[in-house]
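Researcher: I'd like a structural prediction for the single chain below. Treat it as a standalone chain; there are no partners to consider.
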Amino acid sequence: MKKTILILLFALAAYGAATAATLPFRSGEILSAELSTAKPGIANEDPLAFPLSFDRRIYAELVVKIAPGRGISIHDYALEAFGVAYPCIALRAGDSAFNADVWEVRRANANEKYTLLFVLDATLVGLTPEQTLTLQAQFPPKDRADQPVPFTNLKNRSFTPPRSIPNSGNMKAARK
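Model: Treating it as a single chain, here is the predicted structure.
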């Protein structure tokens, strides 16, 4: 009986480790990576700030925890897919609304979740339930600038609110 319970507990722990995870990146940890065609609200958005050369859009959100003493900016990272680099267009702290006038957080609160928002070409990205995109650091050193990140495609559903994402993350473990 004890052996059966131990095997069951081990299986549940292994399953949990395979289905929920965080992913380390230069500035801290990625808790969630999602794609959605549902546009989140962005206060003070200027369509000329990030002109788009495509009509079908899909949005990508990275919810992150920033390492102590670090900051983050919309200029720090881009997402690369099929040879195209897409810039970060907005940033927010916690569950607040995106505000295009806020481009950086100089000293991140270690207990706060931050969200980076990207807009990508939906004719290339988001065609499958899961997709790995490359997070590119926009500052040196270049030898550690690219990070593969597995995204979950929510299709037309809204993004998961940061308050609903556990500190242990909601990402699926990257497939090897």
